[in-house]
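Notebook entry, structure prediction.
Reason for the run: the old model in the group folder had no record of what sequence produced it. Starting over properly, with the input documented here first.
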Amino acid sequence: MNSEFNKRPHRRKNILTGEWILVSPHRTKRPWQGKEEKPQHKEAISYDPKCYLCPGNERAGGGVNPDYKETYSFKNDYAAILDGPFESTKDGLLEAETETGLCKVICYAPDHSLTLPLMEDHQILSVVDLWQKEYQELGAMDAINHVQIIRKQR
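New structure, fully documented this time:
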């Protein structure tokens, strides 16, 4: 098998079912701070100097967030799929094709401690407005066939 397929997003054909499955091997390089369960009574902080998403901080991929004051979006540094040329390979039982696209991250608020249930109505509307904007802009791109919005806790 072409070793480049093990470095780039692609889809593989399941020879038993004929279905295509997305494979994103490069995502194993993204940082993982691990999930830690903490007592609920802990005081929430509004800014975390170690957080890759907080305003002004360096992201894991090396970029720096602006000092944003409301909802903010940027291209994911460790996206599940990447932009690039179409390639395919067939080697024995393995049949694979590259899968391309664009993944973005939306920061709901500059306050690290805020989640949707704790936000004011106008802040929630700002999040929903940005979801809609991103959905429409990404969906209008010829190379994108599907837009999916997911929620991941910091």
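Summary: Residues 3-28+45-139 form a domain with the HIT family, subunit A fold (CATH 3.30.428.10).
The old model has been moved to the deprecated folder.
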